[in-house]
Amino acid sequence: MKSKRLLIGIIIALIVIICGGAFYMAQQKAEQKAEIMVGKFTKVLIEQKYDQLPSLVSNDSLKKYNYNKQSLVDKYTNIFNGIGAEKIKISNMTISKIKNGQYQFSYKLNLTTSLGKMPTLSYKGKVIKEGKDYAIDWNPNLVFPSMDATDKISFSEEDAIRGKILDKSGNELATNAEFRQAGIIPKELGKGDKKEKNIKAIAKQFDMTVEEIEAKLNQSWVKEDLFVPLKVIDNEQVKKITAVQYQAVDIRYYPLGEAASTMIGYTGKVTAEDLKKDSTLSSDAVIGKSGLERAYDKELRGKNGGKISLIDKDGKVKEVLLESYREDGKDIQLTIDAKSQLQAYDALENATGASVIMQPKTGELLALVSKPSYDPNKMIRGISQKDYESYMNDERKPFANRFTQRYAPGSTLKTVTASVALDAGTLTPDKTRKISGLKWQKDKAWGNYYVTRVSNVPQVNLEKAFVYSDNIFFAQTGLDMGEDVLRKGFNQFIFGEKLDLPFTMEPAQISNKNQFQSQILLADTAYGQGQVLMSPIQQAVTYSAFASNGKVVYAHLLKDAKTKTKDAISSKSATIVKKSMMQVIQNPNGTAHNLNGISPTLAAKTGTAELKQTQGTEGTENSFVVAFDTKKGHEFLVLSLVEDHKKVGKTATELIKPVIEKLEK
Questions:
Q1: Residue 340 annotated in active site
Q2: Mean pLDDT for the chain?
Q3: In what helix (H) or strand (E) does residue 569 lie, and over which residues does it extend?
Q4: Preceding omega of 372 cis (within 30 degrees of 0)
Q5: Which of 604, 569, 567 shows the shortest CA–CA distance to 585?
Q6: I want to staple 530 with a disulfide (CB 3.0 to 4.6 A). Which of 92, 524, 595, 641 is the partner?
Q7: CA neighbor of 355 nearest in space, from 342, 366, 368, 343
């Protein structure tokens, strides 16, 4: 009997254990299902795929608040898209059992809106059993914690005013102005042939194609009675035309247009790539796309203000979810002189080239010109496909920045070679070289390679070498110095340095490698050919040493920036070179003699860099000139470049002359 009772007890215990285990497993499985449901719900919120919400929430809970599946999707979509919600993150997720078939969950949510980051929100909710599965027991406080079914979200935004870019005198180079935006009310176009005729008339009026207009009308958001923006136009272009209406808009405006676009740049709406680079940007932000607009974007852009509020059924503010105060962008004042900028741009006429004007004692940049250029106002208003293709197909590349692009400097670099040799003692002002003919080579080891010159002057000293721009004289000067002395002297200037300017620009280089591979390359370098590369800005900064008693004066663009200098050569050598440069103008044989009569204190050096594949053939020639005056009240330095000047029919010296005359006045 004892054994029998023991056996029965064991069986009962086993049954209890098995049943308990099964019950425990069922409970575990139920909790897992509840967790999975909450996970799906929060994932939808993070990914903002609101169309998936109806499959996750209880139908009865929707009916309780007079919602259906579509109105639920619309509520989330309208609210979160309306406030520019992005970067949604869920943290501190918990889930616990309340009673059979019900679980409570909680989590914290962070998100960024177009007004900035919203304070952390704390949510609570329930998961309930619905049939064989589980669903979210939805209620409005799962949208925002304090929200009731009849509450609404109010979103007001105040755009920050973008700062202006000003010249040294306060003249506007980039500003904000009111224009008219032309647009179409689709229902007023009519139908069939009438619609087609009206679209053609609109296209003609606003210099657009029919295809461009139809593409705008076919956008997904377009409705029959909504204004569909077409193009921003000048106020005087407003004309009454069927189906067209006009709205006032404030947009960026560039008074100098093409004359300063490469320097100033333009603004535009952010792209997906912009958002990846800067997490602080909102998806509808307007930012600087190029030039100084891009370089100083954060200072210029400012910060939008506004308020996101919860409004009750009586229209009263129930809770302010986020408030941000507007901070307008700062104005940026430059050293640029708008008048000089326009004059330098116009002076280049139809040439392809660049000009830099700076104050050689302070480093203030007065003008930065690159030509040809583009109209930044077209970029702002919405450039037509025709105009854009015209720019892109232009072989002169109007989007290129030529004042930062590196070129072989040609004979303008002879100023540097002379000053380095003078400081090294391998050259004196009186040293005369006997040179015969128009070509020369050191020895037969040079093979078929010769250094050539233009004028057959038998006795050449430093002054004559400058006046006639004698390549052979400077090639021999470079060889006399040797590579080590030349490199050390050149590096006292700015070769290899990255200038502190808001433009992308490779440092000036002496050669492709750290050592010359031949004496020919050493000789060529000494007169500005070989592998020497310098941008017009770098040339202007380098040659400032001859206008500033041997000190390189670093260029700067912001009006309140401090002047920075460094010793490059001795004051004595700088003076000798400057006097020789004055003779380049004053001597009737000088290569810059056409500048004679402007000022007795004006100094200049011209340069021609020939680009060709092999010696003995004719290549294209880039023309350079550097000119400066250090007379008190007239201090300026001009560096001008003309690409392929033979095609233009004028040298850089001839084109820039009117600008120099005006600078002197």
A1: no
A2: 92
A3: none
A4: yes
A5: 604
A6: 524
A7: 368
One-letter amino acid identity for 326? Answer: R
Report pLDDT for 23. Answer: 45
Q: Which residue has the tokens 């015209």?
A: 390
Question: In sequence order, what DSSP letters do the residues of 198-231 get, joined into one string?
Answer: HHHHHHHHTT--HHHHHHHHTSTT--TTS-EEEE
Number of domains in the chain: 3
Here the CATH number for the domain that contains residue 221 is 3.30.1390.30
Q: Is residue 625 part of a domain?
A: yes
**98 Cβ partners below 8 Å, 6+ apart?**
104, 126
pLDDT at 590: 97
Last residue of a domain, one of 254, 282, 299: 254
Give the CA radius of gyration of the chain: 37
Residue 160 located in a structural domain = no
**What are 590-605's pLDDT values in tens digits?**
999 999 999 999 999 9
Contact 547, 495 (CB under 8 A): no
Residue 199: how many CB atoms within 10 A of its CB? 20
CATH of the domain at 456: 3.40.710.10
Asked whether residue 232 falls in the same domain as residue 367, the answer is no
What residue ranges of the chain have pLDDT lower than 70?
Answer: 1-28, 612-619
Query: Of 411, 511, 535, 599, which is the active-site residue?
Result: 411
Please give the sequence-ordered ranges of beta strands (E in DSSP) within 426-499, or none if there are none: 433-434, 439-440, 451-452, 459-460
Strands 433-434 and 459-460: antiparallel
Residues 242 and 378 in one domain: no
> Is 157 inside any structural domain?
no
Please check whether residues 127 and 226 belong to one and the same domain. no
d(CA 613, CA 267) in angstroms, rounded, equals 41
- Rounded to whole angstroms, the Cα distance separating 85 from 81 reads 6
Say yes or no: 540 and 644 in one domain.
Answer: yes
